[in-house]
Amino acid sequence: MINKPPLNNKKTTWRSRFSLVLLLIAIGTAVTYQPSQAAQTEPGQALFLISGQLVDNLDQPIPAAEIKLQAGGADQPLAEAESQENGSWSLKLTEPPPETAVLHIERAHFQTLEIPLDDAILDIFHDSESGTYNIGLLAMERRITIGFWAATLIFLGVLLVIALEKLHSTTAALAGLSLVMIVTFIGQAFSPDWYILDFERALTYINWEVIFLVMAMMIVVAIIEETGVFQWLAFQAYRLSRGRGWLLVLILMLVTAVASALLDNFTTMLLMTPISLQIGIALGINPLALIIPEVLASNVGGISTLIGTPTNILIGAYADIGFTDFLVNQTIGILIALAVMGGYILYHYRQELFKNSSGISPVLYTRLEENARIEEPAVLWKSGLVFTLTLVGFVLGERYHVVPAVPAIIGATTLLIWLKPDIHHMIKAVDWTTLVFFMALFMVVGAVQEVGLISIIAQTLSGIIGQSMPLAVFVIVFGVGTLSVAIANIPLAASMLPVVALLSGSIPGGSSKVLYYALSMGAAMGGNGFLVGGEANLVTAGITAQAGSPISFKEFMKVGLPVTYLTLLVGYIWLAIRFAIF
Questions:
Q1: Are 104 and 70 in contact (CB under 8 A)?
Q2: Which of 40, 54, 110, 255 is the most exposed place for a label (fewest CB within 10 A)?
Q3: Which fold has domain 44-139?
């Protein structure tokens, strides 16, 4: 047994505690603070203003384009600006533009625009001492360059390496990012067409809200798991079932699904698997008949909340979907999917779950009870209270436009101050490997978004789907679900987010965000197909292998693949009912 450091470590200095608290508060401020436009305005009052907005061929805004107003063959521009995230731009002039003025608009991976100012525009400025003119929407055409093909191959290579498990997912994402930077900075020496994106631009694709939300919740979960509450719940499931295998597996699935919705499926399975192994062996049941259903339930159950799965955290932050939105729009569908899954599990494992059991010996029962004892009852109620208030913060925060990372950081900070855990232990409990993976992956996906691959995929899907929202939901649910069987769902969901955003803007009814919910269901439910489909699957397989009950790829697939398509069908039907009827 591993000796865990006590929660109240007196050797921990107030300085280290206070430093971490300040760090978390500073992070929360950084997540929500954005400098105002007024703060960015240069001193001096412009007399003349030319403005507009840049979009691509899908009417999506183009940020970071260079706009210059030049006169004749002069080297120095009369005014220059950069387009904002919404594609808008404005040029400020202190005198009317000359007749030879030309708008020069340049952006990597787009055709350069040269727009002479016509007489009608010039007259607006020359007939008065000040004036403004909005040139409206300007569309820029994409360019397919060598950089496009390089970014595409790197991106597909990263997905393939992760799927084949040739490298750790974090290593694969970092390798992909490194190749993007190598191609950009070395390739440019030979031709500008090798350019993909620079490091500063890549950083803008990192969703820091996701990073800090995950980090804060990891600290909260690390404190809760110390109490032994999950092992206690698993033992209570055995007591409630009175040793009947079929009832036990249904209760364990329900406990796992609820725990995964409130925490995350990775941690839930890490804690539920060991005692489920012990209970299965004690009852004379193949432990995998309990554990594999738990894994499947954890992947599906987490879909119902913002924090239940990493893919939901990605989707929620990207599409501004809150905790309540996931709960209201997906919970009923998830409960139906779990019921259908439970029925199939009872059928598949009928020989194991319905055989007669003589029960377990009093000695073994006492040992199980000891292993499932709540170790820190005071810590449990304190952390439970803070966790509940954090969930309330998620719900209330939506009304006041407070991102979920803020209540999560406040909750983590409160527990650190109230319980005074070992700070070094808490920092180690944060899965930095996953956070680095997220950051590197965001930048790699940003690279293919930058060169236009995402736009091409969205255009292709738009051509197939047309204006039919039911067809769009079907394609996303089953298409992403099928891909997620073999491709890890986190990188798949991250790469599909911009595609779904483009489709949501082009199909009637897309403003309901139903396609994002379809992506949520497809990515998480598809992870049940193969053993490599999700992190919870892999960590569970690792624990059972060490205990002498390995989960084979074939055995998992026999159960997981039918469950995947049954739940995908239920998910699609529910979304159709929820958004078409209600």
A1: yes
A2: 40
A3: Immunoglobulin-like (2.60.40)
